[in-house]
Amino acid sequence: MKKLLILLLAVALLAPAALAEDDPAAGFVGGWQDPVYGRARLSIMPGEGEALRVKLVWGDSANSEGVWRMDAAYDAGADALVYTGGSMTLVTYGEDGGVSSEDVRWDDAEGRFTLSDGKLLWADSREDRAAEFAFEPLEKLVPGADEIRERYLQAVADWAPGTAGSSLRLAALCADVLGFADEYRLWDSDEAAVRQSLLDAWLMLDESSMRRFDEDLGEVEALMDMAFEDYDQVAGQFDDAGAPAMAWLARDEEARLSWAALARYTHTMGDED
Q: What helix, strand, coil percent values describe the chain, rounded to 5?
């Protein structure tokens, strides 16, 4: 288990530090949803230094969505998050779930986010519909112990390295685990509840599975790191494994933060702090 903990600590250190509770920008951080259209989701995430990363996804149709991205900073005078250089990209997906095209519509927007009566309001120089939104906090998701065991712990333990097709299975496994972490937005989770579910899931494993998980996770981490650092160098492996969605996930800051959170929770599994 010692090897596992060292590996997971290294992954967790890649995540930006969380904001202090008394930081005025902390009230903006988290997941937000649009209750009117029901198709828009906004995430405000810790970034580098005092910057916050903002991502807004609005599903235009079954196979396309608009993605807005901004680097914002808290302005004490305006009591708002302000940004310049905001971008909007229209992303289209193919039948296999992979990204078929990305069309950058603009990358020069200016705007701000403000809080009013528990809702998040948006103003943007390029997006006319921004004023229509009054985002509400998203519910924090908690995967159950059975799902964590099946989709994460047991999946890693069952990888079977050194056998025919293990390289492709490893790529598919990484895509599945990253997708699982992103699906539950573990970077913005109910940490105590997720930790308890993870511990319960771990205790469901038999000793052999625990040992294999410990042995296999290093390879999962190594391939995940390669995908994060330079996806092009491993794109062929994921494409051959039938996991084209990894091309989008590996470049998505929310997915990366969610993986870092899962790694951190695993590293400190069972700790009382």
A: 45, 25, 30
Q: Of 215, 213, 193, nearest to 261 (Cα)? A: 193
| Residue 73 tokens, joined | 């900073």
The residue type at 247: A
| Domains in the chain, CATH or no CATH each | 24-137 (2.40.128), 140-267 (no CATH)
Amino acid found at 172? A
Give me the count of residues in the chain: 273
CA separation, residue 66 to residues 93, 94, 98, 179 (Å): 12, 15, 15, 20
**What pLDDT digit, counting tens, does each position of 11-51 carry?**
444 555 565 566 889 999 999 999 887 789 999 999 887 78
The mean of the pLDDT values for the chain is 90
* DSSP state letter for 185: T
- 3-state SS assignment for residue 115: strand
Contacts of 13 (CB under 8 A, 6+ apart): none
128 burial level (CB within 10 Å; 0-12, 13-18, 19+)? exposed
With b meaning 16 or more CB within 10 Å and e meaning fewer, what string describes 207-231?
A: eebbebbbebbebbbebbeebbeeb
Q: What angle in degrees, to the nearest 10, is found between the helix axes of 191-204 and 253-267?
A: 60
